[in-house]
């Protein structure tokens, strides 16, 4: 069932990704227009309006900000914890494998956050969880190897690391990692992207893992900075993950993989 869910989620995203939807709208609209169907013109107009909106203004901020504001890092860190959990996703696995050196992606701030906490808690184990989320790049153990190399280069002692590289999505992150935790009923600081924190905390709670959110990798702009700038690629950095995360929250809740639809801080 987990394999079916993993493959189906990847196939579904091909058609649900905002940029793919826009491109498919142009392609289908053009095809219908060539076939003489009047709906082709309507679809092209709608696709153009959507593309123009995304290009001219960071509309994705309005989708991603509720996710990013749901959890905040503790104003005061706890005196003691049992470990630091960092979710995979900050690595750029295809480029790392292609060029033979560790490359970070947009979520690379997860490593900075883990380093900050590792310095604050010099005796706490650092637990990385994340295999490849790509259907084509399974069984490479690449993300685990990259995580070990990156974390040690940041100055975290290898003996502190617990590396899990078999999980392929957030649900598997926690369920595969749970048996590896140093203390089953312990307290763990959780490092992942701010927009991804609600779903991550919900899954952790469902798995019985006590986590404290430590969000990083914010993608939205504050109201006073947001403006029309016609930067299509930059606007996708908030729109794509936000749209995917809201879908993920809904699907994970409907399939019983998270404790509630939109988890919040206790």
Question: Outline of this structure?
Answer:
The protein is an alpha/beta fold. The protein folds into two domains: 2-66 and 231-252, no CATH class; 73-218, Rossmann fold (3-Layer(aba) Sandwich).
Describe what this molecule looks like in 3D:
This protein is α/β, with parallel strands linked by helices and 266 residues long. It folds into two domains: 2-66 and 231-252, no CATH class; 73-218, 3-Layer(aba) Sandwich (Rossmann fold), CATH 3.40.50.620. It is 49% helix and 10% strand. It has helices at residues 2-16, 18-34, 39-56, 60-68, 93-99, 109-120, 142-153, 170-177, 197-206, 232-254; strands spanning 83-87, 126-129, 161-164, 187-193, 210-216. It has a five-stranded parallel beta sheet, with helices on both faces. Strand 4 (187-193), helix 9 and strand 5 form a beta-alpha-beta unit. The chain is elongated and about 70 Å long. The mean pLDDT is 88.
Compute the number of helices: 10
The stretches of 5 or more residues where confidence is low (pLDDT under 50) are none
Biggest sheet: strand arrangement: 3-2-1-4-5
Q: What is the second-level CATH architecture of the largest domain?
A: 3-Layer(aba) Sandwich
